[in-house]
Amino acid sequence: MQLPSHVVIERRDGRREILLHRSMALISDDKVEIKSARSMVIIPALGLLIAGVAVAYLAIRGFDLPFWALIVILLTCLVLVPFSVMGLISAIVGADVIVDKDKNSATWQQGYLGMGIGTKELVPFEKIAYLEVTIEGDQPDRWRDQTDALRQFALTLVKKSGKRLTLAQVPVPAYGQADGMDRTLAVGNAIAALTGTTVRLPEGWELVEIDTSTGDIIPEPKPAAASKQSAHTPRRQKSRLRR
């Protein structure tokens, strides 16, 4: 599947990566995984480090501490260690959503307490109606009819029953809304290619082709001139707000 190069990172394992909001989409030919970003490993690892230091301190100087201090440190470690381990497992091997072509289904994994491993929702491809990209913050219906300084893009799976399930979210500043749409749409197109569904854009948005060497929009050729247009022009698709 072809994805826009300006939002895709090529990985050494052959998969492609798209950065989202505190998460990332890992895309291969038969699977799309939406999981925590690498930076989410830092907090649970720091928790384990603090617990390790506390246990080491108890082993070395624990006899010099008052009884209440020992109780506080032990209770803190009893809470900190299991939560840190669950967070570390979730960040490393867990995933929020897995769309698997071989299993013919989209799976929403359990959250933090489920370590991103257990199944929370399972949707066979046959029950998917379409995918939809939505945007919040672009309408002048807020304070004094002004739009927000942020745009919240969301990719939603809509089942044939009408139930809506969120796949990914991408908040961006208002001036970078085209990039937010490109990232959200790239994930949507990758999932649509696996599931055989379509992606619906918000009203007012359209896809255009741009020249990757100049960044200029390539106008749609007229029928008479279509054959004269160079087939070697480097190009990619990009979303924009229709004026």
Give an overview of the whole structure.
With 243 residues, this protein is of the alpha+beta class. It folds into two domains: 198 residues, no CATH class; 40 residues, no CATH class. The strands form three sheets. Strands 1-2-3-4-5-6-7 form a seven-stranded antiparallel sheet, with helices on both faces. Strands 10-9-8-11 form a four-stranded mixed sheet, covered by helices on one side. The protein has a three-stranded antiparallel sheet with strand order 13-12-14. It is elongated. About 5% of the residues have low confidence.
Give a short overview.
The protein has helices spanning 42-61, 67-92, 177-195; strands spanning 9-10, 16-19, 23-27, 31-36, 97-100, 105-109, 119-124, 128-136, 150-159, 164-173, 199-200, 205-211, 217-218, 235-241.
Q: What is the secondary structure topology, with strand pairs?
A:
Elements: E1 9-10, E2 16-19, E3 23-27, E4 31-36, H1 42-61, H2 67-92, E5 97-100, E6 105-109, E7 119-124, E8 128-136, E9 150-159, E10 164-173, H3 177-195, E11 199-200, E12 205-211, E13 217-218, E14 235-241
Parallel strand pairs: 8-11
Antiparallel strand pairs: 1-2, 2-3, 3-4, 4-5, 5-6, 6-7, 8-9, 9-10, 12-13, 12-14
Helix pairs in contact: 1-2
Largest sheet: 7 strands, antiparallel
Helix content: 25-40%
- Strand coverage percent: 25-35%
What is the count of structural domains?
2
User: Which regions are unreliable across 5 or more consecutive residues at pLDDT < 50?
Assistant: 224-235
The main sheet orders its strands as 1-2-3-4-5-6-7
The count of helical stretches stands at 3
Q: What structural class should be given to the helix and strand makeup?
A: alpha+beta
Order of helices and strands: EEEEHHEEEEEEHEEEE
Mean pLDDT over the residues: 81
